[in-house]
Fold this sequence. Notes:
Layout: H1 3-68, E1 75-76, E2 82-83, H2 85-94, H3 96-107, H4 116-133, H5 135-148, H6 152-169
Antiparallel strand pairs: 1-2
Amino acid sequence: MDNVDGLVLVGTVVGVLVFVLGCVRFIEYLLEKARQKGKWEGEVDSDRKKFDQFMNQISQRIDEIWKHLGGKPVSESTSPISLTDFGRSISERVGAKKWSHEESIALIEELRGFSEYQVQEFCNGHVWKKILGDDELKARVENCAYQEGIDTEKVAEVISIELRDAVLSHRE
C-alpha cells in the first residue's frame, strides 16, 4: 500500500469517527432537550393542579357567599324571567313542572286576555295562595327549601315561573 492509499484510509477512518462523534453529540443534545421538555411539562402539570385547587377554593367561597346572601339565584333577570340551572334542579326536586301543568289547565279561562306580565304577576300570587292552602304542597316547598338551604320564597318563585310558562304554553 502506498502512502496515498494509507492517507486515504486514515482520512476515511478519521472522517467516520468525526461523523459518529457528531451523531453521538447530536443524540445527547436531543436527549437533553427531551429532559428539559419533560421537566417543563411536569412544572406545567404541577401548576395546573395548583390552579385547579385554587379554582375549587374560589368556587367554595362563592358558594359560601351565596349562602350568606340567601342562596344561589334560582332565576335570571332576562326577558322573560327564566330559571337558572339551580332553579331547574329546584323545580325537579319539588315537582313544579308537573304541578304547574295540572294547575295551568284550570287557569286557562280565568287568564284569557291577560298580558304576559299580568299572567306572571297572577302566578306569583296564585302560587302563594296554593302553598298556604295545600299542606302537601307546603310540606314539599318547605322540605326543598330546607334541603337546599334557601328560603321558601325562592322555591315559590321557581314554581311561579313554571306555572307562568305552563299557562303561556296553552296560548301557543
